[in-house]
Amino acid sequence: MAGGKGKKKKWSKGKNRDKVVNKVLFSKEQWERFNSEVPKMKLITVSTVVEKLKINAGLCRRALNEMADNGEIRAVCVTRAQRIYTRNIGEDADEE
């Protein structure tokens, strides 16, 4: 009979992610920053804008929809899970 009591296993506490507090409404400065920076981005997704501007994803989706409707950005792929937009280059050629 080998063995006996060894050291008791120490359980790790797990990795905790810091809770982010994103804004649920645009402030005046954030709205101006959104309107100036987003149309210049080459790849526009909800997650990239959320990371950059620290806003809520729901707010970002609505703002991107409005921007796409106004023709400032162009939708590349819009599915239920992911929305991918790009900037408008040569707006007359894309409108055909």
Describe this structure in words.
The chain has 96 residues and is α+β, with helices and mostly antiparallel strands. It has four helices and three strands; from the N terminus they run αβααββα. α2 crosses α3.
List its salient traits:
single chain, 96 residues, alpha+beta, 3-stranded antiparallel β-sheet, 4 helices, 3 strands, 14% strand, elongated, disordered C terminus
| Silhouette | elongated
Using only CA atoms, what is the Rg? 22 Å
Secondary structure: helix percent: 25-40%
- Which structural class fits the helix and strand makeup? alpha+beta
Can you give me a brief rundown of this structure?
The protein is of the alpha+beta class. Helices cover 36% and strands 14% of the residues. Strand 2 (73-78) and strand 3 form a beta hairpin.
Question: What's the structural blueprint in terms of helices and strands?
Answer:
Elements: H1 28-37, E1 44-45, H2 46-53, H3 57-69, E2 73-78, E3 83-87, H4 91-94
Antiparallel strand pairs: 1-3, 2-3
